[in-house]
Design brief:
The chain is an alpha+beta fold. The chain has helices spanning about 60-70, 125-130, 140-150, 170-175, 205-225, 240-270, 275-290, 295-310, 315-330, 330-340, 350-355, 365-375, 415-425, 460-475, 490-500, 500-505, 530-545, 545-550; strands at about 80-85, 85-90, 100-105, 110-115, 120, 150, 165-170, 185-190, 195, 385-395, 400, 405-410, 435-440, 445-455, 480-485, 515, 525-530. Bound molecules: zinc ion. Zinc ion binds next to helix 5.
């Protein structure tokens, strides 16, 4: 088949024999790969190194590096280039010193080493880390410029055994030709010194070295200024320590000598010579008394001497006990003894603090009952039988403010507000008497004040309530059987006895006992206080007048 086609050569559209038509034909289903784009053309500058492509090594081989490095014009900046045995040396001299300030050696693998005044840069230096220590990542001119920007660490100013000495000598010929002599440089550095810093300040390692050194120096100085111990080995002790110790010892010796002299003088002036017989006699007296003195006497005299010397007074518990017992027997006698200044004794206020260990309170006080139980626990069998005595004593009518509890004390008080309201017409009246319940052991030396109440002319029903409460406590709480009760023959007491008429049994016209409500198998016997009856009898006789007159005539 003959196909017509365009003939481009002629510019005219004409059919060509055997040609395949191309114009206006649909595109093929699979695209052909395009040819890579052509590189952009730049003007090549001979002095500037080829721009680095991202991710591509700066120098591919050592020979490439060598060729390019030799073309560089870095000698203008002061660098000297040398090539020996497959290594390239770049040195930067610092006149007049013999050692090059900077030195860079590049080996075949394009790795490099830096030296500063003859010392190699530490392997872990930041400068190495940034460029991975290879010239594949940085051009040599950039590297050298960067190196020139770095400053030398001034090191530590102290000369120490732990520091290394960095000596930088001068060139010999320089001193010969020049007029002024240049001294070689000495640096002291810590062993880990980084040599180069970006700021020119002391590097962190040298900084910490200085701190450590100054601390050690202070400690050493302190040690030198401390007197040596008496047994310290002389060969290992600082002379200053020995000197200080000697001074101290001399002072001590002088003081002791002074004391001895004083004592000797005292003996010479005031001493009395005694013969052997008297001497042994004195010793015997002292030895005898040592044994005879009771432990308390010894303690008492020891405490007295101590108290006499001391400014502030602190009393031994035994002394407090002794004084408490003394003051409770007779407060006035105690005060007399105390004010006479013969003995140093605690004041009444101090004693009061100890005395009121249990806070006193009208009515049955739990702390007091606990104390009685404690005391009674030592008693056995018949020793536990007790007699309860009731008496009313006159007290001064007065009100006292209790600063600890915030109460006014001195009103009538039966220990329980309810009983108070039941038993008193007027609750807010001053107490004129104290009703005291006192127990006494029948077969033991138990004496105990169980409770007291504030009253004003006690009545039989006031006694009634408190009496049976006392019996309950003694029988049930303290396990102390009450066998009898003693009181004087006051009318309220007799009326109180008579109130038990029904409990006593009908056959008796005089009530002299009652069934113990808390132990019904036993009675409680009522006793009138015999000495009190005698006193009453005497008073009756005395007041009658007539009999007195008869006796007197
Ligand atoms: Zn340093």
């Amino acid at each position: 088949m003959h196909v017509l086609s365009f003939i481009p050569e002629t510019g005219r559209k004409a059919l060509k024999f055997g040609a395949v038509p191309l114009l206006n034909l649909p595109a093929t289903s699979h695209d052909q790969s395009r040819a890579p784009e052509r590189r952009h053309l730049n003007i090549v500058q001979t002095n500037v190194e080829a721009t680095r492509l991202e991710g591509m090594p700066v120098y591919k081989t050592f020979s490439e590096f060598k060729t390019r490095a030799e073309k560089l014009k870095i000698c203008n900046k002061g660098w000297i280039t040398k090539s020996i045995d497959c290594k390239m040396y770049f040195t930067f001299l610092h006149k007049p010193f013999a050692l090059p300030q900077f030195e860079v050696i590049v080996d075949e693998s394009l790795g490099f080493v830096c030296g500063i005044y003859g010392l190699p840069l530490p392997d872990d230096h930041e400068f190495y880390k940034i460029h991975k220590r290879s010239l594949r990542n940085i051009t040599i001119s950039e590297l050298l410029d960067e190196l020139l920007n770095q400053k030398l660490c001034p090191g530590v100013s102290v000369k120490s055994e732990e520091a290394i000495c960095h000596f930088i000598p001068c060139e010999l010929e320089f001193n010969e030709t020049s007029d002024h002599v240049v001294e070689p440089k000495h640096y002291y550095r810590s062993k880990e010194c980084t040599l180069l810093t970006s700021t020119g300040e002391t590097c962190a390692c040298c900084e910490s070295f200085i701190k450590k050194h100054s601390k050690a120096q202070t400690f050493k100085q302190h040690k030198i200024n401390t007197p040596a111990h008496l047994n310290a080995p002389l060969s290992q002790t600082h002379p200053n320590c020995v000197k200080l110790a000697l001074q101290q010892e001399r002072l001590r010796t002088a003081e002791l000598q002074k004391k001895i002299n004083k004592m000797e003088n005292e003996i010479k002036v005031a001493g009395v010579e005694i013969d052997d017989e008297l001497c042994s006699g004195l010793f015997a007296i002292m030895a005898d008394n040592e044994q005879k003195v009771s432990p308390f006497m010894k303690l008492f005299w020891e405490q007295q001497t101590k108290l006499f010397k001391m400014g502030h007074k602190r009393y031994h518990p035994m002394i407090i006990r002794f004084c408490l017992s003394l003051a409770s027997k007779s407060p006035s006698a105690y005060n007399e003894l105390r004010n006479s200044n013969i003995l140093t004794l605690p004041g009444c206020r101090t004693l009061r603090n100890y005395k009121n260990a249990i806070k006193p309170k009208a009515g049955f006080n739990p702390a007091v009952i606990a104390e009685l139980c404690e005391t009674a626990s030592r008693l056995k069998g018949a020793q536990r039988y007790v007699v309860l005595s009731i008496d009313e004593v006159k007290i001064q009518e007065n009100l006292v403010y209790d600063k600890h509890a915030g109460h006014l004390i001195g009103f009538v008080d039966l220990g329980d507000a309810e009983i108070d309201y039941a038993c008193f017409n007027e609750v807010k009246q001053l107490a004129s008497h104290a009703l005291v319940y006192y127990i006494r052991g029948l077969a033991s030396d138990l004496k105990f004040s169980l409770a007291y109440f504030g009253t004003k002319g006690v009545t039989s029903y006031q006694i009634m309530t408190t009496f049976w409460e006392a019996i309950a406590i003694l029988e049930l709480t303290c396990q102390l059987p009450v066998i009898a009760t003693v009181s004087d023959g006051a009318s309220s007491n007799r009326k109180f006895y008579r109130m038990h008429q029904l409990l006593a049994g009908k056959e008796n016209d005089v009530t002299h006992r009652t069934v113990n409500l808390f132990a019904p198998e036993r009675y409680i016997w009522f006793f009138a206080d015999a000495p009190h009856l005698m006193k009453t009898a005497r008073n009756c006789i005395s007041h009658s007048g007539m009999v007195v007159a008869k006796i007197s005539t």
